[in-house]
C-alpha cells in the first residue's frame, strides 16, 4: 500500500500561507510631542521561540546600543491532529480531464482533514510595542480568519481555510544586570483547518453503459446474477452525426464511438434488446 511517491508540498503551502499573514507588520515610535519619528517593520522568521529570543537578546552589532533593540517575530508548525468532524466520504472523487488526452481523466479521492498547530512568537522590549503589535492581529480573528489555499492547481484543489486563535500567552523576562535586554514575549497559538491530499490516479472515460435485466423462473433457487438468462438488455452511449457538430439519439445515423470525443456535442442513444 505504501511506497508510491507523490509530492504535492501541501504542508509547505500551509506554512507559507500562514507566514504571509504576518510578514508586513510595523510599529511606530513617537517623540515627546507625540510626533512619529520612526516606523519599524518587524522581521518575521521561521524558528522556535528559543532561537528567536537568542537573536533578540544578543547584540551582534557592538555599535548598536542594547536599549534600541527592535521587535522580532517568529513562527513554527507545532503539531498535527486528525479532525473527524470534517471527514468527507472517502470514496468521493475529484475528476479533471487531461488537457492533452481528453479521453483520460485524473482523479483524487477525498482529501483528509487535519488541524495544523502553529505558534506565533512576538518579542519586544517594552509593553507599548507589544500591545501595538497585538492590536494589529487580534481584531482580525473573530475567532477565525479565512484564507484560500491552492493545494493542487492542475487538480483544481483549493480550499477556504479557517485559521483560529486557540490561546495567547505572555512572558516577561526581566532579570540580570543593567546590560541585559528585557524580553517581553507573546505566544499566540493557532489552529489551521487544513486538508492533506492523497495520490493522483488516471482513468479512462466510460462511453457505454450496459444493463442486463434478468427475470428468474419461479422456485428457481439456483438463480444468480451471473447467469445468462437475460430477458432484456439496455445500452446507453453517445451519438454524433457526421461532421461532429450535431448530436443524435438515432443509432443508425451516429458515427463510430471511437470518433466521438468527450467534449463533442453528442446526444444520448438508448438501445433496448429483447431476448424473450
What does this entry look like structurally?
- By secondary structure, the chain is mostly beta strands.
- It has 2 domains: 10-202, 2-Layer Sandwich (STM4215-like); 207-215 and 229-274, no CATH class.
- It has 3 helices and 14 strands.
- A 6-stranded mixed β-sheet has the order 3-4-7-10-9-8. It has a 3-stranded antiparallel β-sheet with strand order 5-6-11, with no helix packed on it. A 3-stranded antiparallel β-sheet has the order 12-13-14, with no helix packed on it.
- The mean pLDDT is 83.
Strand order of the largest sheet: 3-4-7-10-9-8
Structural class of the secondary structure composition? mainly beta
Please give the CATH architecture of the largest domain. Answer: 2-Layer Sandwich
The CATH homology group name of the largest domain: Myoviridae tail sheath stabiliser
Rg estimate, integer Å: 32 Å
List the total number of helices.
3
- Overall helicity: 10-25%
| Main sheet: strands, sense, barrel | 6 strands, mixed
At the first level of CATH, the class of the largest domain is Alpha Beta
Low confidence ranges: none
Span of the ends, CA to CA: 47 Å
The amount of beta strand, in percent, is 35-45%
List the helices and strands in order: HEEEHEEEEHEEEEEEE
Overall pLDDT, averaged? 83
- Number of domain modules: 2
User: CATH fold name of the largest domain, please?
Assistant: STM4215-like
Number of strands: 14
What shape does the CA trace take? Answer: elongated
Amino acid at each position: 500500500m505504501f511506497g508510491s511517491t507523490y509530492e504535492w508540498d501541501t504542508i509547505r503551502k500551509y506554512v507559507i500561507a500562514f507566514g504571509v499573514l504576518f510578514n508586513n507588520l510595523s510599529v511606530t515610535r513617537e517623540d515627546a510631542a507625540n510626533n512619529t519619528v520612526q516606523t519599524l517593520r518587524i522581521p518575521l522568521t521561521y524558528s522556535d521561540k528559543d532561537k528567536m529570543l537568542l537573536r533578540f537578546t544578543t547584540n551582534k552589532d557592538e555599535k548598536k546600543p542594547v536599549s534600541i533593540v527592535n521587535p522580532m517575530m517568529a513562527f513554527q508548525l507545532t503539531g498535527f491532529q486528525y479532525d473527524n468532524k470534517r471527514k468527507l466520504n472517502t470514496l468521493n472523487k475529484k475528476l479533471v480531464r487531461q488537457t492533452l488526452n481528453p479521453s483520460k481523466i485524473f482523479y483524487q479521492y477525498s482529501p483528509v482533514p487535519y488541524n495544523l498547530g502553529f505558534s506565533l512568537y512576538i518579542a519586544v522590549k517594552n509593553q507599548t510595542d507589544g500591545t501595538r503589535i497585538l492590536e494589529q492581529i487580534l481584531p482580525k480573528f473573530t475567532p477565525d480568519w479565512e484564507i484560500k489555499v491552492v493545494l493542487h492547481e492542475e487538480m483544481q484543489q483549493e480550499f477556504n481555510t479557517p485559521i483560529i486563535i486557540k490561546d495567547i500567552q505572555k512572558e516577561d523576562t526581566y532579570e540580570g544586570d543593567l546590560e541585559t535586554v528585557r524580553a517581553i514575549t507573546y505566544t499566540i497559538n493557532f489552529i489551521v483547518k487544513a486538508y492533506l491530499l492523497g495520490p493522483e490516479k488516471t482513468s479512462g472515460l466510460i462511453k457505454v453503459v450496459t444493463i442486463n435485466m434478468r427475470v428468474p423462473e419461479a422456485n428457481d433457487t439456483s438463480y444468480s446474477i451471473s447467469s445468462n438468462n437475460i430477458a432484456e438488455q439496455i445500452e446507453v452511449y453517445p451519438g454524433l452525426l457526421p461532421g461532429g457538430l450535431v448530436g443524435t439519439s438515432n443509432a443508425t445515423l451516429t458515427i463510430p464511438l471511437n470518433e466521438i470525443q468527450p467534449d463533442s456535442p453528442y446526444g444520448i442513444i438508448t438501445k433496448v434488446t429483447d431476448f424473450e
